[in-house]
Write a structure and sequence with these properties.
mainly alpha, two-stranded antiparallel sheet, 2 strands
């Protein structure tokens, strides 16, 4: 038997749904209801129990627990059940194995251990009272800490970083987080809309992102998730922009979107290149449409200005907003963005200046087509474009093209107004092709046409001078080359002659030696022949091997 004996049942009405319950069973589990029943044993307490802060579904779970039925906890109901159990005093001090302890155990072991479960629990909090109770119990911080830690372990839970086409052309395959096979399967599961962090309301989403930023989460992952959040909660459909918000619900929606875009701007990293200029420009346009704060719009303009050298002309074509705006594009916004670029420009990379100068010229050519663009606005933009080109080697062809487009679109301008517009054109920086076109352009004022003709003559003179100078240089060079070739030829001839002379000397030396030998032999032979002839005449017998001479002496005949 129950240790409480309350004879009457009690009726509790929650959210318009009546519950007839036994007092003893409620008192056995709830310290608050037990005290109330003791103080009012015989009274009708329905009016005192009508303010229980919960829903009929959650109250039914509590009642089933009191009647010892099985209770099924889920990530969606565990926080609400825990808050109701705490409100009714269903603690271990009042009864062992009570509802609060069981629900908190499920929250600790089944909810904050998983990414999906933590998000589902936060999404189920749908009223301020429940939120306040959950904060007091520490359940909100538990879910948020769990989400932050899991995102730090696996950044892809926030989504793939958005690639910047300017920065990622060279290192497209470098520094990319590549999950393993198991994690890849989990990412595919995460892509469902219900499990995305962007499905959370701003009251949970903003502190979670702030916590990740404090923990040094990669700015490219943060920026990517913030843009996805803007697509889900801020960006308007094209139809909505053309309709007036007349209902209060639409006004509340606009307010919530304005609050969201302002929060996104506060959370968006200031790192250069974490988002392409096209996406930053898109968010800036929505911030303008929603009439966000000046700090919000200025924040987007600063980010665009810091990476303006990576922008495209379409990123600067921001439509004007409001009925008072007569021009098609917000040129003042572009002027502010340019100021931010030059304010943050360090001067180390000259290529950045050239890119921005070309970008401004292209922008000027685009806005020149606007029939509503005022003369002062155009000249101001032209001066801004010229200022952007200072320090570079760019010509004035882009400015001339924009002026030609503007004069063609605004044919009603007087001669003096056209001269005022053309005053920003630096004719001496026009190329020869541009001068040739401008000399035949009937839209230009006469004074400007004369200047262009003069510059064209200068270009022609320079061209002729260069053409004359080039052949002279070539002739001089050719003469020098010819002389060098002649010298080399003479040297080669002399070298060959020297070699031939050396050969002839060798041959002559040999011939001389041979001739000497022959001459000596001949002399010997001649001497021998002469001597032999003399000996023959003298009657000597001579021989090559014997030189004795034998003369037969005649016997003397003495007279007897």
């Amino acid at each position: 038997m129950s240790r409480y004996s309350f004879s009457k049942d009690v009726q509790v009405i929650v959210g318009g749904t009546p519950f007839n319950l036994h007092r003893d069973l409620l008192a056995a589990r709830s310290s608050k209801l037990c005290k109330l029943f003791k103080e009012n044993p015989d009274e009708d307490l329905s009016h005192l129990l009508s303010d229980i802060p919960t829903s009929p579904e959650i109250f039914e779970i509590m009642a089933r627990f009191c009647y010892n039925f099985q209770v099924n906890f889920t990530p969606e109901n565990v926080i609400a059940v825990s808050c109701l159990a705490c409100y009714l005093g269903m603690t271990e001090a009042h009864s062992p194995h009570n509802l609060l302890n069981k629900s908190l155990s499920f929250f600790e072991h089944e909810v904050i251990t998983g990414w999906n479960e933590s998000i589902r629990s936060l999404k189920a909090i749908d009223n301020p009272t429940l939120l306040q109770q959950a904060v007091q119990l520490g359940l909100i911080d538990g879910c948020m800490d769990s989400i932050i830690n899991k995102a730090l372990d696996n950044p892809l839970l926030l989504g793939e970083p958005i690639k910047n086409p300017v920065l990622d052309d060279d290192d497209e395959h470098e520094s990319v987080y590549k999950p393993n096979a198991k994690r890849q399967l989990f990412v595919l599961d995460w892509k469902s809309e219900d499990l995305s962090l962007t499905s959370l309301h701003l009251q949970f989403y903003e502190p979670i992102i702030r916590g990740m930023i404090q923990c040094k989460m990669g700015s490219n992952y943060i920026a990517s998730n913030l843009y996805q959040y803007a697509k889900r909660w801020v960006f308007l459909d094209p139809k909505e922009t053309d309709e007036e918000d007349t209902s209060s619900s639409e006004g509340d929606c606009s307010n919530s979107k304005r609050v969201a875009i302002e929060a996104i701007e506060r959370l968006l990293p200031h790192d250069r290149g974490v988002l392409p200029c096209a996406l930053l420009s898109e968010m800036l346009q929505y911030a303008t449409v929603l009439e966000a704060s000046d700090n919000c719009r200025d924040g987007f303009e600063v980010r665009i200005g810091r990476q303006l050298d990576m922008a495209d002309v379409n990123d600067l074509l921001i439509p004007s907003q409001g009925y008072s705006k007569e021009e098609k594009y917000d040129t003042e916004c572009v002027r502010r963005i340019l100021k931010h670029f030059y304010h943050n420009f360090t001067g180390k990379d000259q290529c950045g200046l050239n890119l921005v100068a070309e970008l401004v010229e292209d922008f000027l050519g685009e806005v020149a087509n606007d029939i509503d663009l005022k003369k002062d606005s155009f000249t101001s933009l032209a001066e801004m474009s010229i200022a952007a080109s200072e320090g570079t080697q760019r010509t004035s062809d882009g400015i001339y093209r924009a002026i030609d487009i503007y004069l063609n679109k605004h044919k009603y301008l007087t001669e003096s107004e056209r001269e005022e517009i053309c005053a920003v054109l630096e004719c001496n920086k026009l190329s020869a092709e541009a001068c040739e076109h401008a000399a035949q352009n009937e839209r230009l004022p006469v004074r400007v046409a004369v200047q262009v003709l003069f510059v064209g003559q200068l270009h022609l003179r320079e061209t002729i001078t260069k053409e004359v100078a080039v052949p002279e240089e070539r002739s001089k060079k050719s003469e020098e080359d010819d002389e060098d070739e002649k010298v080399m030829g003479e040297l080669e001839k002399m070298s060959s002659k020297v070699m031939e002379l050396e050969k002839e000397c060798v041959v002559m030396r040999r011939e001389i030696q041979r001739g000497y030998m022959r001459k000596s032999n001949k002399i010997e032979k001649e001497k021998t022949n002469v001597w032999r002839e003399m000996k023959r005449k003298l009657g000597c017998i001579s021989s090559l091997n014997r030189n004795n001479c034998h003369v037969k002496k005649k016997k003397k005949v003495h007279p007897r």
